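Ligand: adenosine-5'-diphosphate. Inputs:
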Amino acid sequence: MNVAEGAGFSRYEVLMLVARLSFVTAIGFFSMKWIMNQLDPNNSQKRKAKQKAKEQLGKLAKNDAAVLARPIDLEQLTDYEMMIASHLVDPKDIRVSWENIAGLEHVIQELQETVILPIQRKELFEDSQLTQPPKGVLLHGPPGCGKTLIAKATAKEAKTCFINLDLSLLTDKWYGESQKLTAAVFSLAVKLQPCIIFIDEIDSFLRARNSQDHEATAMMKAQFMSLWDGLITDSSCTVIVMGATNRPHDLDRAILRRMPATFHIGLPNEEQRIQILELILVNEPVADDINIPQLARMTDGFSGSDLQELCRNASVYRVRDYIRNSHATRSGASSDDDVYHDAVRPITMDDLTTSLRKMKTSKVHTGTLSMAKLDLD
Ligand SMILES: Nc1ncnc2c1ncn2[C@@H]1O[C@H](COP(=O)(O)OP(=O)(O)O)[C@@H](O)[C@H]1O
Ligand SMILES: [Mg+2]
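Predicted complex:
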């Protein structure tokens, strides 16, 4: 008779007890893990980001333009890097190319030579320290003149990884998360290099630091700058930060120093307005009486997006006319679809000048155009 039997336990019962105990412990462990996962407030966000990052990286790997310099193992990326990777841009998804930008050939050419060429033909620039591409590029100028447009076209034409950094992604309600995400931006970019990090409206994030900054924001800014400096001192890595802003004076001086390549995208002059109007109207049905040079003369102080709006408005007039006419004819009881189709007349100079007059008045009222430029004839 052994001890276990003496205590009333058979060998079988002891084994069962151990088995039961380990079973309960395992269940407890896994359910605890599951509960902890569910309690993690970023859990679903992380899962979604992971899926999106996988999709984007998969798409980029398949892209025949060889956007990814080398295959990336998803297991190598941390959770934070995954979150950033979900904002990678696939050039195929972008419809804007250099041809969609009018009147800014000089900017485009300079951008191609200083930014894109050194990335694509790295070997040509390797022998000298001075020919390295700039680590920071700033596009600045009044709103609606094509800064975002240029950035989009760069993403399409550069054929490198392009991270469209959404700043809301970096801000997190948990202390310390923002800093980890900021660090992940740079560590991911280095893993994917050559890579362009684009920040639109950069002044909202990297504006001049002051004593009223929240502690977390101040830390994020400082960290961003020091990580960026890391890139600047490491000449072998090709990561470029590109920013766009219409308030360059609000930017921190330290940021301006890190963006040595600046491009001013100003309001278009008359020659540029002709080119923009031609581009906007090229595929539109226009009447023969359209005089683009005259229109360009009359739109002094208009930005590219104003010109776009001007033409859109003018184009709506003809549809409005058509609807009115068709109502009139329908009440006159004649119905033939072809007749209706023919009734949508092309855009005339009259439409454009009416639209221009309306826009000029509203621009003067909102203070975006000076009274002196209000020449209504
Ligand atoms: N040079 C240009 N050529 C063609 N379209 C332009 C040009 N500049 C502005 N636009 C029009 O204005 C819109 C707004 O331009 P965007 O680049 O977003 O302005 P911002 O400089 O404020 O970023 C564009 O979507 C485009 O339709
Ligand atoms: Mg913009």
